[in-house]
Amino acid sequence: MEGLINTVNKLQDVFSKTGCDQIDLPQIVVVGSHCSQSCGKSSVLENIVCRDFLPRGTGIVTRRPLVLQLVQTQTAKLPKNANTDDSNSDEDRSSSSEPRDIEGDDPDLRAQFLHLPNRTFTDLNLVRAEIEKETERLAGYNKGISKSPIHLKIFSSKVLNLTLVDLPGLTKIPVGDQPSDIEKQTRDLIFEYISKPNSIILAISPANVDIVNSESLKIAREVDPEGNRTLGVITKIDIMDKGTNALDILTGRIYPLRLGFIGVINRSQEDTIANKPISESLKEEERFFESHSVYRTIKKHCGTANLARTLNQLLMAHIRKKLPDIKTKVSALISQTEQELASYGQDLSASSAHGSNTSRLLKLLTQYANNFTSSVEGTSAEITTVELCGGANLYYIFNHIYGSTLDSLQPTNNLTNKEIRTAIRNSTGPRASLFVPELAFQLLVKPQIKTLEAPSQRCVQLAYEELTKISLNCGSNELRRYPRLHSKILQVVSDLLRECVTPTSSYVESLIAIERAYINTNHPDFIGGTGALNDLQRKIERKHRESMKNRIRDPIGTIKHMNHQAHNEQNEYEDDIDNVDEGFSVKKREQRSHGMLNGETEHVQYTEAHQRQPSSARMVGGHNPALSQTIRSHSPNLSSGKFFQNFFGTTSTNRIGSFTNDIDADSYPAGRMPELPIPNKLSNPTTVHGTGFDGSSDYDNKVASLTTRLGEDLSVEERDDMETTLIRLLITSYFGIVRKTIQDLVPKAIMHLLVGEVCQSMQNRLVEELYKENLIDDLMAEDPSLKAEREQRKAMLEVYREAFVTLNEAA
């Protein structure tokens, strides 16, 4: 099982060469508090190695992570092609000949740095100097720290196989020229290592400081709250106060850890200065624990030898547990890297570059055109599920952005009554108007149709921008290998889009101009004059019916407030007109053609409603002559038809006038007041939609009906209001027809003239512009950065494959 640690060491070396940090390898991370910065942590590591090799000093000495790999040897064998430190192969790191072992009892002792693979150190004093030099090279001279690790491998027959990571000690206050945030830097660096699940934390704390104040245990608990992968080391046990001991700490009674605690004794500062051999120090440590009355009862928790043995066993068990997961991770990385490498394409040799570039260029141009078309049609294999893209965005533009914008347009909101009246008067010239002039309607509706042009052109622009966005995103990874080709393709596509968007915009402009050129008042969906009057009459009839019912119920109140009521009714009818629905629906037209055109009236309904009134309200002829006089006095137009004369400039005689002349409440028996008839809404069943701008008999009947409802002469202001309301109704109806047409035609024009034309012409245009003999070699020049990235991926793939082979051997 010792081979497991060597396997991890090999993986560490392999991954370190390429800077790979995606594999979390099992290792032991050494963490020391600021109280143990100068001696405790470094001394523990040196005791494990049995040699002095770490830098010494005050403040932060360890300023870069030191990955220390200990390899137990049986015989003294140097690596092949390795130069010892007494050779002069490396001028800047050469040294004179020296003993291989300063104590002379370990012929296998040697050291190697990963950054100096061809040099072997046998003098550990030079190892210390190299650590200092390499630290200063990256971390500088101002006691700052660096995250880049130093990899050191020590071969010795006196060590157990271990992998340790020595980290900078926790520091509270910066000293000298240290950066002000040195505490944050050290904490971040320590957390980067101990937060990895495969790391075993070796938390070193001095025995002469209360264990609850240990910084190393505190920081270890933040990432390992259960203490499952933390091993505690208690140093300086020999200098505890007399009468005290660390028994409760070492047995886990005060601060329990699953891996437990081990107590060790380091060399004193005096011994270190005197260069006392570590071997003698370790013998004194062993005698201290064996002779102590308390510690000799817990030998397995005491001594550096037990610490090294425990670390070796923990690391092997940990590696054995994590090895299957590591193997799975490496296998996944191999597959992922192979896919990435395949996406970069093959590296073409110079001999066959030109011939293969010709066919590859044609293939890339065709592939790009196909990708563009599939993105528009929604058949691309790389469609995202996060947001709308391609053809789906075009649909959203047509139906949501453009459609909602047109629906929000109100054709008469920007027209004031004064502007409408002025247009009516200007259209009649010096002559008085006999009816609502059609020319005024056309003068007013054409500018409203013009308001549809701006959102229509905006729709064209949005579609153009979406196609541009598609062109930027439909390139493949292989195409990005050739930045010049990619840039040229985008330029050609951009020119093609601009060429197609211009006629599309012109055609949309022509659609609006066509609608403004001829106002078709004979359109089957147009409300027309008759329809507009019908809507007005419906509102007016309802108001007057309710008013008449109220008068019959309360004749005295009606007579008292007659003048006030007449004035209010005029205002109410105008308010009702404003509430007329914007369009003239098919349902209303069907009702008018099937019901109203057949001569149906509301006479029966009104009669039934009248008969349901109290008898006192119906018997107005015999008991309320004042009310009869009121009806006659407020209905002069019922006989004269002055509404038609005032509004349309002519007269009409019909049954309404003769009938109303006969209405006399005094001539009927008591309680037999006749019901007031409601005329037909449309007297001629053959009336055609869109008529009403002439003085036809249909209008005579319609106006006669309105005359019955108004029951009074119209002033000039009232006539203007009526004309304004009719014009608004006509504009709203016709604008709705044009809006519906434009909303249907503009997306079709964009799809045909812009989208369809671009998709059909793209491949031919790309081949025509770029598939040229003199441009092929230049366009197919690979991106240097991408080429370097491909080489890096190749190196990573080799590393992963080598690691996989190593793991298989260990298994």
Task: Give a quick summary of the entry.
With about 800 residues, the chain is α/β, with parallel strands linked by helices. It has 30 helices and ten strands.
Report on the architecture of this protein:
The chain has three domains: 25-73 and 143-327, P-loop containing nucleotide triphosphate hydrolases (Rossmann fold, 3-Layer(aba) Sandwich), CATH 3.40.50; 356-518 and 739-780, Dynamin, middle domain (Four Helix Bundle (Hemerythrin (Met), subunit A)), CATH 1.20.120; 528-714, no CATH class. The protein is elongated. The protein has 30 helices and ten strands. The termini are close together. It has a ten-stranded mixed β-sheet, sandwiched between helices. The chain is of the alpha/beta class. One of its GO terms (biological process) is mitochondrial fission. Keywords: GTP-binding, Hydrolase, Nucleotide-binding.
From the structure above, extract its key features.
811 residues; alpha/beta; Rossmann fold; Four Helix Bundle (Hemerythrin (Met), subunit A); 3 domains; ten-stranded mixed beta sheet; 30 helices
